[in-house]
Specification:
The protein is α+β, with helices and mostly antiparallel strands. Helix content is about 45%, strand content about 15%. Strands 3-2-1-4 form a 4-stranded mixed sheet.
């Protein structure tokens, strides 16, 4: 019937349950992002009870993107393959330029509306 599965949040919502196609598409997106921007750094975010391991790429101007990866090692391997530095977000936090970028985007949105 599936009633209890829905109540417990089962199905594809568990951490680490991304399909191979989703992961491959995520890696393509991250690769495209890193190659089309300057000063990109990777911030590896640990698995939580609600999310799988993710990698956050932040460009020099603060623009950012986030995608799931198979694990912490895979995130660091991808960063190495892209030739960009990788940091553990839980240890070093997020760069100020990312927060500044988010603030600028919010201000631009408020000016338009």
């Amino acid at each position: 019937m599936g009633l209890f599965r829905r109540i417990r949040g089962g199905g594809g919502s568990r951490p680490g349950r991304a399909g191979r196609g989703d992961l491959a598409e995520g890696e393509r997106h991250l690769t495209d992002f890193a190659r089309s921007r300057r000063g990109v750094e990777a911030y590896v975010e640990p698995q939580t009870t609600v999310t799988a391991v993710t990698v956050l790429l932040v460009a020099g101007d603060g623009e950012w993107t986030r995608r799931r990866v198979p694990g912490v090692r895979a995130a660091h391997t991808l960063a190495g393959k892209l030739g960009i530095p990788a940091y553990d977000a839980a240890v070093v936090g997020y760069p100020q330029r990312m927060r500044d970028y988010n603030r600028r985007q919010k201000e631009q949105g408020e000016q338009k509306g």
